[in-house]
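Subject: Predicted fold for Cytochrome c oxidase subunit 5A, mitochondrial, 149 residues

User T.R. writes:
Posting the sequence so we have a shared reference for the thread.
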Amino acid sequence: MLRITAGKLAGAMRGALVGNSTRVAAVRSLHGTEESAEEFDKRYEKYFSREGIDGWEIRKGMNDLLGMDLVPSPKIVEAGLRAARRVNDIALAIRWLEGCKYKCGDQMATLYPYILEKVTPTLKELGVPTLEELGYDKPELALKSVYDQ
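User M.O. replies:
I've generated the structure tokens; pasting them so everyone works from the same file.
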């Protein structure tokens, strides 16, 4: 008796969950329009270039970008660096570079040098050192692995 009741309850729950998730997906696809890459870049450049932006808003924008499934374009990286420098937060600028570097994932050997090449004039202009100049590109106290020969 308990097994039959539990089976019916599980079937009803499954139907309710599947029905709700399809409705939610349909509603989400109806909201908003698709945004091109250029529009996306301009939106975040404009966000970081706003007059009177504070450190919290800069961190919020950077965190949102790093949470997305993309690597920020060099224009956005430059805008973020300029915003961090405007609020005189060099640590934020360095962390932004570090976040962008690790966002490259398995393409770090190709994407990060490209970003760094495009952003280097801005880094020099703002006086922000790169991770390599600071020695943050390799661990400070790491020991050699016993498996390396």
